[in-house]
Every structure is written in C-alpha cells, then in structure tokens.
Amino acid sequence: MKSIAISGSPRENVGKRDAKELRYQGLVPAVLYGGATQTHFAVSAADLRAVVYTPVVHFIELEVAGVKSQAIIKDMQFHPLTEQLIHIDFLLLDEKKPVTIEIPVKLTGTSPGVKVGGKLVQKLRKLRVKALPKDHLDNIEVSIEALEVGKSVKVNEIKLPNLTITNAQEDTIVSVTTSRALRQAEQEAGKK
Fold it and tell me: Where is the Large ribosomal subunit protein bL25 L25 domain (predicted)?
C-alpha cells in the first residue's frame, strides 16, 4: 500500500482557543492514538490534502518532534458550512496487530449484460477489510466479466488471501439490472 510522509509540530496547549488559533494559521489540530500515550500535534492543512481529498487509501509516515511512526487516518471532522478540515485523528500501526481499513473497489472487465442494454449498478464503492498492515491492498478488484442481466457479485464471492472482509456477507457489491430501454425492447418483441 502507498504511504505519504507528513510532519507535524507538537502542541503544548490543548483546548478550543488553541485549536482555533492553529486553524487561523492554516494548521489542523491532530491526535495520534494507539501508543502508550496520546500525542497531540498540529499539521499543515496543505500537507493533508493529498491524504484526505482522495479515494485512495494511504499509510501515513508521521514525524512529530523527531519521532517517526506509521499510522492511518482514524477519524476526521469537517466544519459543517465550509467543509474545511478542523480536526484529524490518526491510529498508530503495529506490524503484529490487524487493523480494519476501508479499501476502494475497482471493477474490471466488461459485462455481457451491459453490452445487451443492462444497467450496471455499483452499490459498494469501498469494503471494510481487516488484516495486518503488510497485507493490505491499494484496491480490491472485482471482475464483472460474467455479469449477465439480473446477476450480481456479493461480498461472500470475494476471496482474498490474508484478508478478512467485515462487510455483511450477503451485501451486493455490483449488479446488472434491466434498463427501461431493454424492458421496452423485450415488450415489443413479445407483441410480435
């Protein structure tokens, strides 16, 4: 999985007033969880754009006060009106502990059902996957080569080594439904 390096500066004061001042300076208050103690720091909003505003999942190489650690984004808070990032939480990764991450689904191939006029409907764009950090993938490829009209691919059909998908097993990832044009063509063919 790809990783991005981000550096932050430690925060001495933790509170609303301090956080507001940091945001005014173009910084985002952040917390690193998962270690012996929580680490409070601030990171540049510009540095976070490549990690936050993308569908791609990244490991983050954090450097705070000279201490380097590998983490993932645990939670983000946005301003309700401006949608500006106002707080971010990171989770420290341990190579021996499995971690759950939402990984994007990538559809591959061409569906025969779509070729005859069916409509491709992707219901899940990400899957929750639990695995050791070294086993995580950039995306999960789902082949739609065998999808006829009325058929679907469910979560329980996806088998990946060293990964456990935690979504409900009966959830539909992608399906091909009958389109209005295909229904009309079938009705007209039935009248003849």
Answer: 7-90
